[in-house]
User: Fold these one by one.
Assistant:
Number 1:
Amino acid sequence: MSSVVVITGSAGLIGSEAVRHFAALGMDVVGVDNDMRGYFFGADGSTQWNLQRLVKEVGDRYTHHSLDIRDREGLDRLFADLGSNIGLVIHAAAQPSHDWAAREPFTDFDVNAVGTINMLEATRRHAIDAPFIFTSTNKVYGDTPNSLPLVELETRYELPEDHKWYGGIDETMTIDNSMHSVFGASKVAADVMVQEYGRYFDMPTAVFRGGTLTGPGHSAAELHGFLAYVMRCVMEQRTYKIFGYKGKMVRDAIHSHDLITAFEAFHRAPRVAEIYNMGGGRFSNCSHIEAFAIASQITGLEARTEYVDQARQGDHQWWISGTGRFEEHYPDWKLTYDVPAILREIYEANSEVWKS
Ligand SMILES: NC(=O)c1ccc[n+]([C@@H]2O[C@H](COP(=O)([O-])OP(=O)(O)OC[C@H]3O[C@@H](n4cnc5c(N)ncnc54)[C@H](O)[C@@H]3O)[C@@H](O)[C@H]2O)c1
């Protein structure tokens, strides 16, 4: 019986939500996470607290391996031991930051690209029928979205309503011939390889190209974790640096819970070599200015922001995910959290931890 789910990045935002969700469905969860987020982003970023919480909450259904996904032999041994008991693989471990990647390009590529082929190959050798879900990113489209005909409104940039992507950018946008950042390029390598294992080896692989993924499980750090870091800054009265686009850049935000229900839908009815843009879409999106206004309303505190008049290289001025392809394949799936609901939950979950 294929009752085991292997989850990499299991102490991170997406991984930990997946651990809870699939354990609650009665699967045994094997987690792989070496707390490398602490190395990337320092103490703010460490996911150790989340791991301890998980172990307490999930109990015997969860087994943790502090294994590095760059350790090819270690992964192969783990998969060989579990063999055909593996019914699902969720690969969410990564170096997730744009800015950090340029500091150590080799480390970024080794984790994001080589780590992913290590996972694919271990799955092919030992559990070829298991659906393989990969968390890619909208950064695979590089800065192509910045060529959209955006108009400036009072609190955000916006596409004209009659534009074909007003409802969200779909998977037909080219991923080629643009600036991706070092991070975006290592994710492209992984994204294409996951598709290739699907097509070439006929494996049930899916690439989810996320917009902003968020939720209370995020270890909010300056270089990664947009809405959680917005809320943390307001609650702790830290100054948040806004880089470029007058605070009017637009992001869609999906709560980790809504992403994991999408993973569950794929797990129940897998397909081969799929790609899906996945995010909050028109239902859940905001600009910096709008996010801070909501956070101030929730906390009753003024936001402290500093504006740096230079956008991050390759950063999107406007991104809303078109989730139509996924919804067509999985019509029962629905988004349940919008930006105010997400911010409120992050606030409530951290009210004892983040204090000014
Ligand atoms: N959060 C977002 O806004 C966002 C947006 C688009 C895509 N994604 C992608 O979704 C995935 C999950 O993101 P997240 O926000 O949960 O990230 P996260 O940093 O919260 O979690 C990733 C986890 O992976 C672990 N990890 C990193 N390198 C590792 C290694 N070499 N070996 C083992 N474990 C390692 C980290 O310690 C961390 O706990 C990533 O692939 C990321 O690129 C995230």
Number 2:
Amino acid sequence: MSKFLTDDDMRGEKMNKYVKIRRELHKYPECGWHEYRTSARIAEILENMGHEILMGADVVNESSIGKPEKLSLEDIKKEEERALAQGANREYLDRLNGLPGVMVIVDTKIPGPITGMRFDIDSLPYQEPSKEGYRPFDEGYISVNKSAVHACGHDGHTAMGIGIAEKLLDIKDNLKGKIKLFFQPAEETFYGAQSIVDKGHLDDCDHFIALHLALSAENVSLRSNTIACGCKDFLSDRQLDVNFYGKAAHPCGASQEGKNALLAACSAALNLHCIAAHEKGLSRVNVGEIHAGVAANTIAPNAMLRIEYRGQTPDISKYVEERVFQVLDGSAKAYDVTYDYVDYGEVSAGKSDDKMMEIIQRAAQKVPWFRKIYFEGNVGGSDDAAVMMTKVQSNGGIGSYVGIGTDTTNTLHNPEFDFDENAIGAAIQLCINALQEIHGK
Ligand SMILES: [Zn+2]
Ligand SMILES: [Zn+2]
């Protein structure tokens, strides 16, 4: 038994061991592909429980990680040193060998269904506020890492996954088939889910479940004691960094010689936001950043736009993409500049299956904490769990992306996001109930 999982660690009625783990993860948040301490701790806790685990390159396919996200060897060293200083065990860091990600396979050795469950482990790049009256500060689990905070509840998801792993050891003898628990890096950035799919870990799964805290249903946030059994409104998400290349010139003396990349970028930004909506569903385009120019007295020879676009179905995503590139081509032509772009890849759209949502619904009915059960909820955006779910569905399997209600201090992706930790225990029980239905002998 791990020293991190003894009952002595429990402080007060609500402070059970999974809450304690969540708070520890909250204190040491790490953004996409930097989750060295987090992965090492998850692995240590799971192995001490008695699970066999896979780590690093056995979990994620390294070549699926796009260039912009890859850490240099120097950065990996630096991040490993930080993780060590923050309590990571060197043995587990060594086994990660530079790649975050952990996986457990619970194999009953009896033929049966294969379920994959995704728990995302990364944080967001904001600064958590140190102020009295904010529980993480008052109770000593505020982020100690600069510009990193668990503002999307992934610390809670990870604690749920660890709790499910532990409970599975108790009930394994009554189950058939296999259960795979993925502790996935880089949900908020890129290539996290894709790198696990590319490793082939979802190829044999016929069931898939992912959870997310604090989604919504019927246009209201999911509060404590509520649950949404699945979501069908994932949007695809694609992000590009677009670089325009022009020609510097004196803006007075030889302006006809200049090629203004800044104006091309501005024209593109305005027109990207003018792309018409699609009648068949949701689409979104956003220009989030623009950087251009060198000096007030020089025609700007360079500009960079950071853009993202989303669509509710593959057809709508394709429509938006075509329009995005027409705008980029047109803007470049109008100002006689050229452009290229860095593509961060696409997170697919997705849809939970009614059949899987019904399993979740039955499981929720047996958890007293859930007093209001919505059959369908809303993602309100994108999550790369859709990449895994779509993979399972493409092989004839079923999946669901479940919303676990919880009272929060602020909205998801706000640096002051904290939540009602009672949701952790409820979610563990929910998933155990669902796995018992799927895998019961
Ligand atoms: Zn998020
Ligand atoms: Zn999230």
Number 3:
Amino acid sequence: MPATTNGKRPVNLAIIGATGVVGTELLKILDERNFPIGQLKLLASERSKDTVINFRDKDYPVEVATKDSFKNIDIVLSAAGSIINELAPAAIEAGAIVIDKSSAFRMRTEVPLVVPGVNDSAIHNHKGIIASPNCSTSQLVVPLKILHDLAGITRAVVSTYQSVSGAGSDAMEELEIQTHNSLHGQPLEPKVFTKQIAFNLIPHIDKFNKDGYTKEEEKLIEETRKILNLPQLAITCTAVRVPVLIGHSESVLLEFARPISVEQASIALANSDLIELWDDVEDNIYPTPVDAAGKDPVYIGRIRKDNSSANGLHLWVVADNLRIGAALNAIRIAEYLLEHKLLRQPVAS
Ligand SMILES: NC(=O)c1ccc[n+]([C@@H]2O[C@H](COP(=O)([O-])OP(=O)(O)OC[C@H]3O[C@@H](n4cnc5c(N)ncnc54)[C@H](OP(=O)(O)O)[C@@H]3O)[C@@H](O)[C@H]2O)c1
């Protein structure tokens, strides 16, 4: 049996989407955090069936994910999109808990949607599946929860500036190729995105709904309401894709029921283990995506009084979408399950 860390028993883990950009980050963070792993199964699609991934000095062949992939598995970390709809019932049947990064289950009432440090207690209500939010939601709810507890948020207006890694590895490659081609006078061919992304930005992420909002904007709105348990919160969003490789940024205007000063907000946010405040405009201190890439905190700067409302504050919120927005959030949920001895017993066969 492999050695345990922090007194936790090693966990049999399956990762669906192990070859993707979030899957790669999952493996990196599991190692960084010494996550206690017993058996490890790396799963992806047919496309990757000859791939081998090295993890902690051992080679793992990538297997095609099927309903038979989950024997003896404690936790399934899924970062593979909607295929989890087909696979989750078999994983649960085998006794595993599924932590899913896709939007497949997030808004189902029986599925907890969790950002550890914001609404951990929801994990206890799981029935085999725990959903991890959209990347732009995960970083947003961290300051919103703290400021809501302080002064009662009555309205939120969010504009996102989302990096291409939020759309996966093909999107990162598209930005790199288009940047090169653009600088060398070669033709640009949008494939992943609807328009040129190099030296441009695109006010369109996911599909358009009938009301003119995009699915991405709807996800941020609905998921924020669910995580904060504020189903009536007045919140609106415009989501924009920008030519940044890693790191989502958000301009956030919050209006409050009670007066709140910049100082009160700053002290409360700085007290959180999840947040780093970078806020000193006199010295040009504010976070950018390049500062946040590869790091764990949610970075906050540019906190200022809103000049157009009575009790309003502006924030600039930046985080690594692949970490807090995806892989790190899922691993923190897994760590919570271990910490609170909430693993199920894999079904023997
Ligand atoms: N990127 C982010 O910032 C972010 C943030 C939050 C949530 N998410 C969610 O995380 C998931 C993965 O995103 P990503 O950015 O890592 O995308 P990606 O780089 O395109 O990777 C997709 C992964 O899913 C696997 N996959 C696709 N279809 C599959 C199937 N039918 N069966 C098994 N595996 C399959 C792929 O395997 P092959 O390589 O074999 O095709 C690959 O490993 C998506 O649901 C996404 O919405 C992403």
Number 4:
Amino acid sequence: MKALRLIDWKTDPELVEVPKPTPRPGEVVVKIGGAGACHSDLHVMHDFEPGVMPWKVPFTLGHENAGWVDSVGDGVTTVAEGDAVAVYGAWGCGKCSRCQRGFENYCENPGEAPVVSGGGGLGLDGGMAEYLLVPAERLLVRLPDGLEPATAAPLTDAGLTPYHAIRRSWSKMTPISTVVVIGVGGLGHVAIQLVKATTAAKVIAVDNRQDALDLATQVGADHVVASNDEALGAIKDLTAGHGADVLLDCVGAEATIELARTAARPLGDATIIGIGGGTVPLSFFSQPYEVSIQTTYWGSRPELVELLDLAARGLVHVESTTYTLDHAAQAYRDLQDGKVHGRAVMVP
Ligand SMILES: [Zn+2]
Ligand SMILES: [Zn+2]
């Protein structure tokens, strides 16, 4: 079969021929119906010197995957050939207390996971291929009726990551509160829909691109604010001078983290979701009183079940541009150049 593989660190991936996987006991092979191209893949392929990540090259890219069960190994009972499934992307040990709660993204026993701090497409072969080997059936979530794999694939990361961040701040998203989403890209445009679908809070979207602000309005933002020196004042004006109750920074650059924490209302949450690498100095007075500054990484398996249900009911969708496997390398180049509308999804 064909697969888009990272052959060596700090190189562009190559489309090569590899053997189709066969499942051993407990494993499942999924015929890929969709694989999302994520911004973090660009860091994986371009930024890391050999030895920085605990992973060996080569491996096939693609950590946002969905498809149909192609074959199952001995002992697999919860899924069968032909089932439409999404793949939960963080592959932990499955046994520690975090994994037991479904938070395999925070596995505390990574030495016993299939790969340290990764999964398919992150150290092991991922879904930018015709087939994907999944090491355990618990990592599959059956798709609800009405949800196609190509639609579900980007939800497993671009949807799950903001859903988790929103869910943990739900108690602060009351009907009279305001949520600010900074960065209306692959994650941000889903974040807006998720706040609207699961709470009655007002949403302000912030971005420096007009087409992103148009998309924000289209997917339900109540207000849009240009990302510039006046953004803080604009957020204050839209919140009667109080600041926002929850700010979700889907960028994570220095300027956006600074905006998120300074535009927060006392007792608010400022959550850094994007891995933009920005840093800001922290002190007692660097943000309003009792603002919680937090980071999140991905989400839990039970949250993915809820998210897929929301999507099947039409309450959230991922804007996407489709590429064939033959053009998957181009998808990453377009992503790098900022040319992709919504999420780039490879459909073989
Ligand atoms: Zn990702
Ligand atoms: Zn674990």
